[in-house]
Design goal:
The chain is an alpha+beta fold and about 190 residues long. Among the domains are: about 50 residues; about 60 residues, no CATH class. Helices cover about 30% and strands about 15% of the residues. The chain has five helices and seven strands, in the order αααβββββββαα. β2 and β3 form a beta hairpin. The termini are far apart.
Amino acid sequence: MKELAVVVIHANSPQAKGRIERLFRTFQDRVIKEMRLRNICTMEEANRFLEWYLARFNKKFQIVAAKQGDWHRPVSKEVDLDSALSIKTERFLRNDFTIAHDGRLFQILDHVRARTLMVEERTDGSFRISHKGKILSYREIQRKATSASKQERLPLPRKKPPIPAADHPWRKFKFSKRTFGRPEVQVQS
């Protein structure tokens, strides 16, 4: 949206959130009751009712704009709308010149010295990989190549825990049956 010089203003105020919550409550509560009172049972009847009801609802709650007129700006010829409206994701370039995106792996064919690349998913389903505005060539690869040594490695056998020597201190310690491991308390009389 920055490319189109559009500023998105999020409705983070309680007043704006309250407005939309009231609208949702209206559609979840009042509209259903109105439809029940009119014995509306089919989808066609419901659509006809909504056309009538929404016109009445909008007339009751609409607010007239302070200034009338068309505020849309024409798009300049320098702006590439396909690029501006695409989903852009930054990806790290690995040491083997590959990037991962949506569970797929792509090999970058151009030599580029960068840490990150931009992946653009376009509205027509295609996508581009670029760096600082320069479009890079790439090809999808099925899986990452593994070295033969990694494939031939066998799992290491599990080591047994070391057995302490016969003279180890914990072997000499003994619990008495009477104290269950607590020191005896001697009382003098």
